[in-house]
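User: ok so my PI wants both of these folded by tonight, can you help

Assistant: No problem, let's get them done. Here's the first:
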Amino acid sequence: MPQPHRTNEHDLVLPSGFDDIVRVIDRYVVDRRAGIPPRRQSARHRLPALLLTREPAADTTAEGTTAAGLAAADTVRGEPDPALSALVHVYHHRLVRLSTGETGHLASLAPHALVDEELLACDHPGEDAEGQDGPHVRLLDRVARQLRVTMPDGSGTLRLTEFDACLSVLRAAIAAGDVTDERRALRDRIYDKYAWKFGFASEVGALGDELGARHWSAITKLVTTPLAWLWRWSYGVRIDRGARFRWVGGMLDEPGRSFLNAAMSLRDAHLRSRAQGRADQGAPADAGAPAASARSAASAVSARDEAVVRQVLLTALIHDLARAARPPVWSVRRPRRRWPFVLLLPTVGGDDSPSRKLLNSFSAVSEDVGTCPLLVLGAATADLPPYAVGLPRPGIPSQGSRHSTHGTTAQAVTSLLAAGASGQPVEAVRAVPLSRVPDNGTSAERPVVQRTVRSRERRASDWLRPAVAAVAVLAVVAAGLFQAVRAGETHSRAETRAVPRAADTWCPRVGTGERVGITDGSDTCELAHGLYASELRALEARLGRQNADVDRTRPYRTLVFFAPLSVGSTSRRTVPTGFQMLRGALLAQKEVNDLNLKSQMPIRLLVANAGEYFTFGSHGGLNTKNHTGVDVARMIVDRIHRDHIAGVIGLTQSRPESLQAAIELDAQGVTVLGTGVSGQPMVEGDSPVSYFQLSAPDARVARIMASFARRSPRLAALTKIAPGHTAPAAVLVFDPHDTYFSADLKKRFTDAYGSAGPVYPVPYGESGNDSQTPSVAAGICALIRRTDGFVLYAGRSSVMYDLFYYLQSDKQCRTHQGRVAVLAESAAPNLVLHPELMAREYGSLSLFYNQFSLPDAKGPFVTNFRNSYEVSSDSDAAAGYDAVKVFFQVMNEISVTDPQFTPSAVVTFLQSTGVTDFVGESGIMTFGKGHKYPVNKEVDIREITEDGTRITDLTCGAVAAKAAPVTRWGPSGNFLCPEDD
C-alpha cells in the first residue's frame, strides 16, 4: 500500500487537549464495544463520525432569531482549518507499528484506510474497465483494498461479498441487447468472478484418462455437466432473489425483489454519470446560454446518479464490514475482531472534495444500515457540512472543578462513542472542536510515541469456542439418535403435552422483556411488566373475575381492549394512558352485564397488549419497526370465532403501527373504536372503513388550542404580546419523526395560529437521546426569556416528565418573571390525576392541558369509578367507559333482527345507520354514517393553578350537560368556539 508523505511529528505543535481525545479514540479502536457489559450489548450499534474542527475565535458570537439559531448556540461546531489535516495523519501513524518478530514487517493494529486526495488527483487511468470507473468508484475501491491489506495479523481475510458484487456490476462490459440477455450476462459475470465453482468434472475426467477407459470422460461429462448447470442456476437464483441484496432495489426505488433488475438500473446510472463527465470535459467554453443551461441540467442529473452509485457501494461495504466484525460464535477469529474498521479523511473540504462527498454518503446511509462498525475520523479543511452536529454545550463547571475546556471536549467525545457503542441513536457526523491554544510541549509527542493502540494478540484460548461448538454439535447429534431409538416412548409422552401453554401462544415474551398478546384474566398469560406491572396485574385480576361471571353457554359477544399496556425492562417512560381507559371499560362491562333488560347481549372482555410504542401490535405494511414474528392484531383475528369477538376498542395512540393494526382487523371485518386517538392520519388517507374514534382529531384540537392561545385571559396573564403581533409567541415543542401525531399537530396549530403570534418550533422526540433533553430545555427557556411567550407542547405524554424536570431546573425558566405557561395537547397522566404534583415539583411552570370531556364530579360514573379503583376519573376513563357502552347499544340493536351476527354486521350498522346523540360520560356523540369521529366533539382546556387545583378555562362542543352544543367560551362567553366543517 503506498504510504503518504509523513509529517515530522516532532515538529508538529498539537492543540491543547488533543492527547485526551486521542486516548478516547484509542479505547474504541481497540474495542468498538468498550465499556458495554456483554449482557447489555445491542446487536445493532453505530459509531458516529468525528470531524475535527477548530474552536471559534474568542470574538466570534452567534445570534439567532429562531429556535434553530438557538439550537446552534447550544452546540459548538467550530471552524474549518487546513492545518487539522496533519492531526489525522498523526493518528494514521498510530495504527501501524514495527513487528516485534523476526520478520520486522510493518504490522497493522486495526484495519484502516486513508483517503489521500493528492494521490487520487494524480491517478490517470487508461481506457480499461477500471479506467471507466470514475473517481468516486476508484476512491471506494481504494478504501476497500486498504481495509483488506491492513487486517491485523491472525485476524483472517476480509471478504467483501456485497461490495465486490456491486463493483463487478459497474465494471461489467455488457453489449446492449434485450433485458433477458443483459440480466444473464450480469449473472454470469458475478458467477464467474466470485462464485465457488462446481468444477470437479475436469479432475474426474483426468482420472479416467489415467485409468485408460475410453468412455470414461463421456460418462463423467454426462453426470457432472447437469450438476454444474444446476449449481450455476441455483447460484443465479440466490443472487437475484436472495434476501442479501434486496436493499439495492429499495435504494434505487426499483420495484420487486430482483437484484439483477436493480443492478441494471445501478449500472445505467453509473454509465450516465460517466458519459456526462466526459461530455463536461470536452464541452467548449464559449457555448451559448441554451447549451450551458442544458449542460447544467444534465450535470445535475449526473451528480445525482454519482451520489446514488456512491451510496450503494458504501452501503454494500458497510454490510460486509458488519458481517466481518462479527464472525459466527464458533469462529476462532470472533474474539480477535473487536476493533472497528477505521476510515481516515484528512481533507474534508468543500462540496467538490472527494472526502466531503464520501462523508455526505456516510451521513445519508449510516442511519439506515443498522450496525455500522466503521469509525470515521476526518478533518474539516473547508466549509463545514451542514449535517455535522456540534458537541453539546458544556455546562457551568461546579466550584472547585478541575476539568478544563479540552477535558470537557474529551468527555463529550466519550459520551458520543459510548452511546453509539451501546446501540443508542446518535447523529451520523459530529464536529469535534479543538483548542486554539497550543500544547505546552510536554505531551506534543505522546500521540506518536506513547499509548500506542494495542490490538488483541492470538491466544490459545481462542480455540476453546470452536472446540466447544464442535462438542455441542456432536452432543446434539448423539442426543437426537438416542431420542430416535426411544421414538415410541417419547411419542406417547408428547401426546399428553401436545397442547402448548397459553403463555407461549397468546402472550410471547419479546426482546424488550415485555409479554405482549391477549389475556382474559384467568389464563396463564400475565401481560404486566415494567415499572407499572402492579397496576396492570390488579386490572387483570378484576378482568378474570368479571369474565367468570359471563354465562358462556348462552349467546354473548367479546370486545377486545387493545393498547400499549407495558413498558420495556429498561424504559423509564410514564404510565401508559391506556390504564385509565381500561379501568373505564371494566367498569362499563360490569354495569351492562348487571342490567336486567328484556333483550341484551352480555359482554366478555379481552385485553391485548401491543407493547411499548405499539411496536408489536401489527406487522408489515405501515409498521416498519416490528422485526419479529409477533403480531397481536393477527392473534385477535385468530380468536374471532373462538371468542365470538364483535369489535376492538382502545388503540389510544396515533401511530403507523396502530393504524396498521386497524388495517389488519379491517381485512376481517372487525370494527375498531379508537379512544384517546387524535392524529389526523388515523381518520384520513389509509384509514380503513371499519375504523371509528370517540375523540376529536388534530384538525379540531389545533383550531381550539390556537383560539385559546390568542384570547385566553389566564394565558395572557403569564405572557406578553409579541411586538408587531396580536398574540404571544408560541415555542412549539414537537417530535419531527412522529408524523401521525406530533408533527401533524404542529403543522395544524401553526396554520391555525396564523400571523397572530410568532411560532418557534423546537424538536424534541420520544425516541431521541436522553442526553439531549437538557439542551432542548435550555433552548426553550432561552426563547421564553427573550419572547415572554408560552410553550405549546405537542409531544407525547410519555416524555413530558423528562422535559419538565429540566425546564424546572433551568436558570432562565426559574428566574423568569412569573411562571412559564405550558399548553399541552397530551399531558402526563399522573399530572392530570394528581395536580398537586405541579405545585410541589414544577412550581416554575403553569400547565394548561387539553381533554375530551368533563365527567360530572357528582355523577354516578365518577362516584363508582373512585369506589372501584380508589383513584379519580378523567376524560380517558370516560372514553373507555363510553366505548363499551356504544358497542353494547349497537349490538343490542343488531341482535334484535340478527341474533347470530358477525363482526362485519357492526361495521355495516355504523356505516349505514350510525350512532346518533349518544349521551355518554365524554359528551353527546353522533358519528358513523360518513363520519369517523363525533361531530363537534367536546374539547376542554383545563388549568392546574398555583395551589395545585384544577379549573376549566374553555369548553366547546356537544357537552352531555347541555341540550345544544357549546359555541362560546371565555369569562363572558364572548369568544366563538371553532366548529367542524
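One down. Here's the second:
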Amino acid sequence: MADEIRRPVRLGILRDRSAGRPRLARFLYACSLPVIGLWLLIAGGMNLVVPQLESTVTSHAQSFLPDEASSVQALVKMGKYFGGGGSNNFVYVLLEGDKPLGSEAHAYYKQLLGTLTADTTHVHSAMDLWSNPDLASAAQSHDGNVAYVLVNLAGNMGTALAMDSTQSARDTIAASKPPAGVTVHLTGPSAVVNDEMVAINDSIVLLVVISALLVSVVLLLVYRSLITALVPLLGVGLALAVARATISLLADNGVIKVSIFAAALSAVVVLGAGTNYGIFLLGRYQESRRAGLSREDAYYAALAGVQHIVIASALTVAGAMACLAATRLAMFSTSGLPCTIAILITLAAALTLGPAVLAVITRMGFAEPRESSSPRRWRRIGTTVARWPGPVLAAALAVLAVMIAPLAFYAPSFNERKAQPSDSPANIGFAAADRHLPPNIMAPSVLIVESDHDMRNSADLIALAKLTDAVAGIDGVNAVQGITRPLGQTLNQGTLTSQAGYIGNRFSQMTTLLQDRIDDVDSVSKTIDDLDTAINGVDAALRQGAAGAKSLADATSTLEATSNSTLKKVQQLSTAMAPVRGLVSSIPQCSTVNACKTALTGLSVLDDLPGLQQSVRSLAAGTTTLGTALPMAANQIPALRSTITQIRQLIGPLKTTLGALIPQTGEITDFLDEVSTAYAAGNPAAGAFFLPSQALESPLFQSGMPYYFSPDGKATRMVVTPEREGFSRDAMDVSAHIIPTATSAMKNTSLAGSTVSIGGPGGTLLNIESFAHEDFIAIIVAAFAFVFCVVLVLLRSLVAAIAVIGTVGLSYLSAMGVAVFLWQDVIGNPLHWSVAPIAFTFLVAVGADYNMLLVSRFREEYGAGPGVGLIRAMVGTGSVVTQAGLTFGITMFAMLASYAHNVAQIGTTVALGLLIDTLIVRTLVMPAIARLSGRWFWWPTAFVRMPAKRAVESESVS
C-alpha cells in the first residue's frame, strides 16, 4: 500500500503504447488512486452540499394518480363545490370512546374541529354532521362510542403537500387533550395512501443497510477475502452515494420528478447491478489468471472481456427503467428517470472506479483465484446440455411450466391497507371504526351529480331519489347517504306511501269532524224550531202591545190637553197671589213662624207646576212614537218566518250531504291506510319519493342542504358504502356499476343529461387498474423493444436476440407463478398491483444481462465448434453469472425487510426471477436452445468459419 501511495500515478504505463492496450484501460491502471480519490471526493462533496434524498422526496412527492383521472376529478369537484381549494385528499377524524360519547366529548370535538379548520393552509373544509342534532345519527355509531367527521385536506393524494397536511392534522390531534377514555384517529383512504408512502420512506435506509450487509456477506463467502470483496463493494457504495445525491439535486431543482417509491427502487437497483458488474470484472480477471496471464495482462484482459457486456447490460437496465417514465401512474413514471440516472452513474463507476480498485488490489497481490471445483462442475453441466439438448430443454420447460401454473389463478390485490403494516395509524383507525360501525364506513365511494340548473326543487328531488334508489339497489352496496337519504335510509316523510298514510289520517280526522258538524246541524235545526215558537209569541205580544200603545197615546194626549188648561189657570192664580206672597215674605223672621213658613211653602208649589207641563209633553211624544213603532215591528214577523223557512230548507240537504260523505271518507281512509301499511311491510323501497315544495323550507331539510347540495344547488353528492372491503376487487366491481346505473336512472327525468362522476377507493382503484393495465402494456412493448435492440446490436443475431428475450419472458412468468403461489396461496396476501410491472422491468433488464454474457461468450468460443464452444462458454461464465445472480437475488430478498408489503412482494418476485433465470433458464434453457439451433442461432450474420478438423471434433462432442 505504501508503494501505491508513493506512486499514485504510473507515468510509464501511460506512455507505453507498444502492447496495443486501450488508452482508457492504461489510464485507469496508471491513475487508479487518483480515480478512486476523485470518486470519494465527488461522493463526499455532493452528500455534504446536496440535501438527502429522503428529504427531497418528501418535499417533492408526486400525486398518487394523474390529475386527469376521473376519480381525482370527482373529489376535486367535491372540494370546490363544498368548500376549500379542491383536492382529492379526504380523511376521517374519528373519536372512539370506551363508553358513549357525552357532552365533554362533544365540547372537545368542537374545539378540535375548530382548530383543524382554522389551519387553512392544510385544511380546506369539514363535513360536520355530528354537531347537527337532526343529522348527528348519520355520523356516529349505534352504541354512541364513535363519532366521525369527513375532512378535506390540502394537496392531492401522494403529493408533498398532502403528506404535509396529513402530518399537520395528526400533529394538531396529538397536541389536543381528549377527555379521559377517548382516542382520536385520522384515517380514511387518503390517510392509507399517505401511510403507505411513509412506510416506504421509513424503509429506505433500512433496505440500503440490509442490502449492503447481505451483499457483503455473500461476497465474503464467495471470495473469502475482504480486500477482494472491495472491488464490487467500494464501487457500488460510491455509486450509490453519488446516484442518490445526483437524483436529489435534479429533483430539488425540478429537473426530474421523484417519489418515495423511486428512492427505494433506485437504491436496490444500484446495489444489485453495481455488484453484478464488479463480479463480472473480478470473474474475468480470475479466469485470465487461471489461464496463466500475469496480473497486469489479466487486468487488461478482464476489462476487454467484460466492458462491452457491462455497457450493454447497463444500457439494457437503464433503457428498461427509462420506459417507466412514459407511464401515467406516478409510482411508475417517477421511478423511471431516477433509476435510469442511478444505473448510468453505476455504469460510470463500473467502467472507471471498479477497474481502478481492481488495479490497486491486484498490484497488492489480492483478488487471486482460489482452487475450486466450480469449473469441473460447470463442464459437466455444459457437456450434458451439449450432448442431450432436447431432453434437457424439455425437462427444464416442464419445471418452468409447473412454476407458471399458479399464474392461472393470479388475482392482483388493490388493497392499499394490506400494502402497509397493520399497525399503521390509518389501519388502527380503520380497526377502531370496524369495532363500532358498519363495514367500510371509512372507505366509501362519493358520487357527484352535476346539473345545469338548481336541483333544489320537487321535480329534481324525485329524479335524485330515483337515482339514489337505483344505486342502493346495486348488489354489494350497503347504504347510500344523500339529500333524499340524509341518514342512510329513504326519508319516511318523502315517500308517497308515507304521505298516503298521512292523508288517510287527515281523512279520518275529517270524518270525525263531519260527524261533529252533523250533530251541530241537528242542534241548529232544534234551535230554529225554538226560535220559530218564540217568534210566534213575539208576534202576539207585539200586536197586543200595539193596541195598548194606541190607548196609551190617546190618554196621554188628553192628559196633555188637561195639563195645559190647568197650568194656564195656575199661572193666573200665581199672578193674583203675588201681593200676598210679598206680604208674607215681608213678615220678620217668617221662617221661624210656622204659619208664615207654611204659607210660603204653599205659594212655592205654584212655581213648580210649569215643569210638569214639559214632562207631560215628552210623555205624549213617546207614547205617540211607541204607537207607531210597535205595528211596524209586528209587520216584520212574516219576513222573519220566511227566513227561518229558508234555513230549514238548507239544513235538510246539508245534513243529508254530510251524512253521505262520512262513509265515503271512511272508505278512502281505509284504502290509504291499507296501501301505506302494505307497502311499508312488503317493500319499503317501493314507495315513490315526493317532497312538496313547502317541505323544502322545513328546518330539517334546510339543515341538510349545505352538506349535500352546493351553494348554487347545481351539484349534489352522495356517499355510497359498499358491503365488502372498500379496497377490494368487489368494491371496484360495485363502483364500476354505479355510474351506468345512475345514468340510466336519470333517463327521462328532469336530470337527464346531467354529469355523474365517482371518487373514493372504488373509483380510485378502477382508475389505478385502468392506468396500470395501459402502463404495463406500454412497459412490455417499450422494454422488450429496447432490450431486443441492445441485444441485437451486441450479438448481431436476430435469432439469438429473440431467444434472449423469450427466455427472459419465461423467467418472468415463472417468477410470477411462484410468487403468486407463495403470497396469494400460502401467505394469504395477494400480490399488489404494482408488483407485475416493476418485476417485469427488473427481470427483463437484469435477466437479459446474464443471457447476454453467456451468449456473448458462446460467440467468442464458437470457433471451437458449437458443442465445445458451448461447454467453454458455460465453464467461463457459469460461476460468475451464478455469483452475480445469487448476489442480486439476495439483495432483492432484502426488500422483505420493508415496512411496505408491496415493496417486499416486488423484492420477492424479482429475487425468485433472478434465481430461476440463474439456475434454470441461463443454465439449461438458453444453452439447450443455442445447441439445438446450431448455426441458425447466429442468423442472419455470416456463419462462423471453422476448419474441417475442428468441425469434426465439435460434431463428435455432440
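The first strand starts at residue 90 and ends at 97. Residues 944-958 have pLDDT under 50 and may be disordered. Good luck tonight!
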